[in-house]
Amino acid sequence: xxxxxxxxxxxxxxxxxxxxxxxxxxxxxxxxxxxxxxxxxxxxxxxxxxxxxxxxxxxxxxxxxxxxxxxxxxxxxxxxxxxxxxxxxxxxxxxxxxxxxxxxxxxxxxxxxxxxxxxxxxxxxxxxxxxxxxxxxxxxxxxxxxxxxxxxxxxxxxxxxxxxxxxxxxxxxxxxxxxxxxxxxxxxxxxxxxxxxxxxxxxxxxxxxxxxxxxxxxxxxxxxxxxxxxxxxxxxxxxxxxxxxxxxxxxxxxxxxxxxxxxxxxxxxxxxxxxxxxxxxxxxxxxxxxxxxxxxxxxxxxxxxxxxxxxxxxxxxxxxxxxxxxxxxxxxxxxxxxxxxxxxxxxxxxxxxxxxxxxxxxxxxxxxxxxxxxxxxxxxxxxxxxxxxxxxxxxxxxxxxxxxxxxxxxxxxxxxxxxxxxxxxxxxxxxxxxxxxxxxxxxxxxxxxxxxxxxxxxxxxxxxxxxxxxxxxxxxxxxxxxxxxxxxxxxxxxxxxxxxxxxxxxxxxxxxxxxxxxxxxxxxxxxxxxxxxxxxxxxxxxxxxxxxxxxxxxxxxxxxxxxxxxxxxxxxxxxxxxxxxxxxxxxxxxxxxxxxxxxxxxxxxxxxxxxxxxxxxxxxxxxxxxxxxxxxxxxxxxxxxxxxxxxxxxx
Length: 651
Ligand code: WT7
What we know:
alpha/beta; disordered N terminus; seven-stranded mixed β-sheet; 33% helix
C-alpha cells in the first residue's frame, strides 16, 4: 500500500466528485461555488444577510447586517432578536420533523436512546425551568461538565432558551482545569454527572467537580445527572439530582429572545501565553455559520444520519453535534465512550447499526484505526456512508487514502475541514459535490470566506510560498472577544498586519490551483490529537511541582497523535538525573493540573537550556533535539553552546 501512496503523491492525484453525487448535492459544481463567491465579493452584507433571513428564524428581523465601525469588535445582525433553541427545536415541531430523530445516542455499555425533536423539546423545556428556578437569568454563565449523554445537549439548549451563556468543560479535564474555568467564567451554577463511561471504566466527574468546587465558593447550585450509578457525595443545599430537579417541571418555557450578539457560549482554548482563553461566541452569527456549513460542507439532507465523533467539550461538538445538525432539523448521532470498547470495530458497528451516512472524525483517530487492521471495518456494512470528514490537524496522505478506500469504498468524498475554536465554523474545506479533492489539502475557502496566505508584511504570496494563514474579512461566526479580556482578543487575532486581517496562528501555502495546504502552528502551541495545547500551560504545570526548577516544552513528531509533548526539565538542587519514578510522578502531576491529554510523552532532565543572550529559550533548537534532527540554521545568538552539546550527548 505505501508504494502506491508514494506514487499517488508524485502524481498529485485529484479526485473529482462523481456525477451521481453532484446531481443531488446542495452545491453541485465549481461554477455554483464560484457564483456564491462572486456574490459575496460584490455584496458582502447582502450575501450573509440573505442567508440569515432565509435559513434562520428571527423573533425580530434585523435591518443591518454588519456593523464594522469599531474593528475588530464586529457586530452582526445587531438590531434583530433571535433565540437559538427556537431555531434548533420549535421551528421543526410544526413540520414533519416533529417526530424525526434529533439525537440517536449510544452509551458505551451499549444502551441506546433516541430523542425525537418533540421529545428533545420536552426535555429542554423542563430543564429550562430547572435553570430558571435555580435563579439563572439571561447573561449568567452556566458550566457544563458532563459525559457524552443526551442531557448534555439538553442542558446547552436550555441555557440558550433562557439566554444563559454556557461554558462546556471537556470531561477529560482535571479538577484544577475545571476550577480555573469556573472562576474565569464567573459561574454560580454547575451541571455535571456522577460519572461517565470510558474504556469500560467510570470517569469520576462528580468527585472531580467537588474537588474543583472547593476553590469556587460562589457556586451555589450543582445539578447532578445519574449516569453510572457510582457513589457520590451530595452537598445538601447545593447539590440536586437531575431527575429530582426535573420532577413535575412544566415542559413549557417561553424562549427569551436575545440580541444576536448576545454570547451563546464561552469555550476555553489554549494560547501561546497565559491561561486558556475564554473564546466568546455570539448567538445569531454563530448559529448562521454552523447552519450554513452543515449544508455546504456536509451536504446535509433530510434523510441523512450524521455522526460527528467529537466530544461536545470541544468546538467541533458544539457546531457539528449540537447546533449545526439541530438547526437544520437533522439526525445527529452521539456516542459516549471510547472507539475501541468493547472491541476495535465499535465505530464501524455504530455506523452499520444506525446506518450512518456522513461520518466526521479526526486524523489522529483515523491513524489509530489504521493500526488496528482492516479486518475491523471489513466486519461491518459501511455502504450507508456517503461523505467522510476530518478535522483538527493536517491529514497525511497515507491515512487519507486508507480512509478513502477502506472506509469510504472509494465512493465517498472526504471533506478535510480547516477551522478553529475561534472561527466557530468550517473556513477552508471542499464542498463534496463541487470541489475536486487532493489528499492532504483542505482545498478552498467556504462561500463567503476570504482566506489567504501572506508574508510578514501582509502581502499575498504566490503559489507554493509558505506564509501566514489569514482571513481578510470578518465573518458571522467569528470569535467576538476573549472573556474578560478584550485587549487579548485584539492583540492575539488582530495584532499583526496592521489590524487588517484575522491571524489564525497557522502557517500555510497555496498551490497553483489556489488550494490551501496547512503547515501547522507558527506559535508556541502544539496540536496533540487534534487539540491545541499551549506549551506554556504544560510548563507552568511542571514548574508547580516542588522538584522542578525550570521546564521547557516543545512538540515532537508522533505517529498517532500528530504531535507529542516533549518536556525538558531542570530539577531543583541541580540534580541532573531524575529516575523513572520521578518521570511518572511528573506526568501524573501534569495530568492532575490540566488533564491526561497534557501528559508529556517524553521528559528529559537537564542542567541547562539553550538560551539567547537575552535569556529567551531557543525552542527551535529544542524542537530539533526532541525530533532527533540535526540543528539547522543560525545558533550564533546562543549564549552557551555547551548546553546544546550536552543535551545532544545525553540522548
Ligand atoms: C487548530 C485549531 C476546529 C476543530 C478542531 C480543533 C488545526 C484544525 C485542521 C485541518 C490542518 C487543522 C490548526 C488550527 N487544524 N483543522 N483540517 N488541517 N490543521 O480546534 O483546538 O481550536 O485548533 O487546529 O492548527 O489552528 P482547535
